UniProtKB/TrEMBL annotation, chain A:
This is beta-fructofuranosidase. It is found in: Vacuole lumen. SMART domains: Glyco_32 (SM00640). It comes from the Eukaryota. Residues 128-446 form the Glycosyl hydrolase family 32 N-terminal domain. InterPro entries: Beta-fructofuranosidase_N (IPR021792), ConA-like_dom_sf (IPR013320), Fructan_Metab_Enzymes (IPR050551), Glyco_hydro_32 (IPR001362), Glyco_hydro_32_AS (IPR018053), Glyco_hydro_32_C (IPR013189), Glyco_hydro_32_N (IPR013148), Glyco_hydro_beta-prop_sf (IPR023296). It comes from Tagetes erecta (African marigold). One of its GO terms (cellular component) is vacuolar lumen.
UniProtKB/TrEMBL annotation, chain B:
Belongs to the PMEI family. Residues 1-26 form the signal peptide. It comes from the Eukaryota. Residues 26-169 form the Pectinesterase inhibitor domain. Keywords: Disulfide bond, Signal. PANTHER family: PECTINESTERASE INHIBITOR-LIKE, PUTATIVE-RELATED. GO terms for molecular function: enzyme inhibitor activity. Pfam families: PMEI. It comes from Tagetes erecta. This is Pectinesterase inhibitor domain-containing protein.
Amino acid sequence: MASSSDLENPNTIASLPYSYAPLPDREQPTADEPTVVLHPKKTAIFLVCAFLSVAFLVTLMAGNGHVVIKNLTTNVAPSTVETPTKTTPMSRGVDKGVSEKSFRAFLGADNSYPWNSNMLGWQRPAFHFRPEKNWMNDPNGPVFYKGWYHLFYQYHPDAPVWGKIVWGHAVSKDLVNWQHLPIAMETDQWYDEQGVWTGSVTILPDGQLVVLYTGSTNESVQVQNLAYPADPSDPLLIKWVKYPGNPVLVPPPGIDLKDFRDPTTAWKTPEGKWRITIGSKVNKTGISLVYDTEDFKTFELLDGVLHAVPGTGMWECVDFYPISKQDENGLDTSVDGPGVKHIVKASMDDDRNDYYAIGTYDAYKGKWKPDNPALDVGIGLRYDYGIYYASKTFYDQNKQRRVLWSWIKETDAEASDISKGWASLMGVPRTILLDKKTQTNIIQWPVEEINSLRTNVTVFKNLELEAGSLVPLNLPAASQLDIVAEFELDERTVLRLNGGEVAYECAKNGGAGTRGALGPFGFSVLAHEGLIEHTPVYFYVAKGVDGNLKTFFCADQSRSSTATDVDKSIYGNIVPVLKGEKLSMRILVDHSIVESFAQEGRTCITSRVYPTKAIYNNAQLFLFNNATAATVTASVSVWQMKSAKI
Amino acid sequence: MKFSSPHPIFFLILVLEQTLIFSSMADKQFIINTCKSTPSFKLCLNILLSNPKSQNADLTGLALIGVAAVKAKGVNIIQHVANLKKSQPELKPALDHCEDVYHAVVDADVPSANEALRGGMVKFAEDGMADAAVEAKSCERSFGEHGVKSPITGLNYDMNDVANVVRAIIRMLL
């Protein structure tokens, strides 16, 4: 299920985020004016009482409001939710070898496959983390400890759907190959009986670890609990102990009992205390509460909040961390100073996307302000423009980098998840740095260890793709790939083109089948040879009125599968491209998950793709230039990716 | 309390009676307001008012009533499909698929949604109801894919519509 809005407001009722093909037309019930009809007996009593005691009624009504019998005129929403029919723009210019039909969404095609075990089996990724079976969501407590990378995660052991959640656990030496360990924490206390929910690890100065996590109590109240390793000398941290005095935090006054979760890693205050932040909301304003503590057992709630943004709804999985303004390494969460900016990130419950903002932290007041209020938390930049939620970073002291984990859910039907026996993945962990060139966004990049899976490279240098060309790349296989490419538009066409209003949006402009003078161009991954199924990942360049180019980076699932019970949204966003930069992209293809990065990680898109035909030996990779005017020169390296041990 | 005349008692009874009527009208107004923001006002009223618990329910309670309605419809369809397998065995491939997808609704989506609503993890309840609509469409389609006419079109469309209404109610909790 995907939200197709980029920087726009979260969904309204009228635009539910699914973009599944609609059922065939049928008679629409007419919109009625609803009437309020009281039971006749009650009407009689009402009239009698009204007649007898008008004075009393007046006093009562003052408290009870405006309840009267009348025909209510309302705007009744249409009674079926249908996806709007797409308008297909006229294609201009040369049409060589790329049929627009193959790029256009094929609405109404009732030729979906019933899923067989072959198709479902193919969907299992080779180098993305997941438990052996059933359901996973948020990453929890990621940390590097005594030589091992630890990942905990929200785990439902009983079914491939969310339910009573425990902490799953796995360890790795390299963030790529994993060893599954026993469940770290179960729902065995009254204060986490309904779920051992998300939490974070803090490493104390003496090297000890503590965990703060949210428990859903036996009465479904959200509280924060303290836990620590039973044996700190065990590098695998198999057994955990819950502090007997739990919970250490309960919802404060004014905060709903179910709006208080996901405590962060703690950082040091100028007074030498520890500080954490916990997301919540007040009406529709998303907020982050701040607590100080010296021992992780008693906490002091600070006045006010770290930050708040009206209209954004509940802030889940808040993350708060410093980034260096000039260095190329990550920073420990407690670092502060003049060379440092701070990121506030939150997962917006309303629209299921992770947003971040760069700003300035006031350690004395415990408050943070965004550098650019127009790009504030929840309304500005997203970590990823596809499926990416509940993400969390940690400072990896082993390699001095800040690493980002994220939950990637399924976007297929639950029935398929039950058949295949699992649901959800983690994205490939990414390093996070401030983009030193733009200064206004971060860059994310798959951890370097993932390159250890690269093998068997195929290189294409300076391929000239004329307008309207489609080039199959001859590869031994195409389900597990690491693609790195650079593109250049031909200068002549760019210069002689007249600029105009650029109103392009990845989600709304019809995907890779919509042709412009300067785009789209890029790759079709998980493509069937007839392009009956394919997933274009591409740049769309447009020239503005001022003569400057705007570049969009999109991933188009609208033709990704002939199945009709999978999400077929188009994701993406504008990507900043500075003068003199070539256009570059990297794509990790791993069966049913595709992670795409533009301009070294300025704009990232994670997609879930469920082809029925473009699988196993029938999956191919194409290069295409669907622009009408420009020639594109591409240089490409494609590695086959080995499978990781997961 | 001692009254010198029956009038205060009379008024007291009137007050109680009117409070009852007004509060039940107020509850109904709450249901009406809730249903106004769903894709199908009438269907929403139908679902909620046919369950007596809706009288005193808060928004979470209304959502749970909605999920219960989805479950009831799912169970009903599964039973229907089982009967059809006997009476119309030529439809078996599509019916098998429908059985699978409606079990996903009843055995996975519904319990997950209930747990999510009780715990305040609303988004998972929304996902469950969104999926119920997808499964209903998937069942309906499978008849066409197998070149036969669906005998349960009404039931499938009904499930799709109900699931979308319940999803809309759940979104109001976010």
